[in-house]
Amino acid sequence: MSLIVRPGILDIAAYVPGDHSLPGEGPIHRMASNEGALGASPDAVEAYRTLAAELHRYPDGATKSLRVALGREHNIDPEQIVCGAGSDDVLQLLVRAYAGPGDDVLYSQHGFLVYPIAAKAVGATPVAAPETDLRTDVDALLKAVTPRTRICFVANPNNPTGSYVTHDELKRLRAGLPENVLLVIDAAYAEYVDVPDYETGLDMVRGADNVVMTRTFSKIFGLAALRLGWAYCPPAIADVLNRIRGPFNVPAPAQAAGVAALADRGHLAKAKAHNDYWLPWFTQRMRALGLHPYPSVANFVLVKFPADPKLNAEAALKFLNAQRILPRRVAAYGLPDCLRITIAEESAVKACADALEAFVKGAATQ
Ligand SMILES: *Cc1c(COP(=O)(O)O)cnc(C)c1O
Prior knowledge:
Aspartate Aminotransferase, domain 1, Aspartate Aminotransferase, domain 2, 2 domains, 4-stranded antiparallel sheet, alpha/beta, 366 residues, 37% helix, binds pyridoxal-5'-phosphate, 7-stranded mixed sheet
């Protein structure tokens, strides 16, 4: 007799994070994980340090002060906020609570890989709706709904494409979904977005029974190492998540750093301004090289490379790695001809643009 793994789990191709290191010595330009370009707020770092003297204490299991701070910031009821060890934690809890064997979990073709992984982990079936031009297609999602559908995930903006769904489209999706399907709006990059027809989805949770919005401190707040995220939920869903989450799922240093990061508006504004400048700058450089950057409203750009083996994504990756630049390969997202490049610190963005220029020019003279 041997152990029996639950159905679905061995079908999971484990999530492969962006590369973190390269062989050899010297500094690396990390552009693989969409981490905040300016790092964490100094106030958050200080709050984290202060907690070093308290490592023997359990954290506040209710994450009260952070939820109150988030409630004040977003003008929402803290009782409807559930925090997690990264928004990843919250996304997994939602799947565990609302899907199981025989159920479908719906997401968009090039959507975030955590959704199908979480679905398989509970024995549910991930169902990908086709995209048009690497954009979430609301009609395709609605068409893919069956009586088995339990959850519909939309990352908005989406990773790895950088595209977004307009507020009107999102409302149309919500209106078209049956009431027994949970719509999860994953707004991990919300703080970066500037376009007028975008909303985080927060307004859609108000008054709804079947809509949740998730957020993270891993991106613009620069706290990826601490693992901190949250969900804004209808009261009944918050109640469900609070029953199944780990009783101390958010470490105390993460809670304290989150409160401090939220209060440091200056740092947030700087991080936003940095992205506002370098995102179009980098996109334009890629276009000028004849590469194809997909329009992005987040802190990364998906760049499509030509099929020519001298110029393709694999060759570009090798070239960049040789210059100690780490972009993200996205073949696992069904995009083998693309690389996803984070708008990291200024020196990295410039180095990457220069390197790709040398790469393209070098290939032309070969
Ligand atoms: C980075 C990212 C997250 C955040 O994950 P954390 O677990 O909070 O670090 C969530 N959703 C998407 C689409 C992301 O790209």
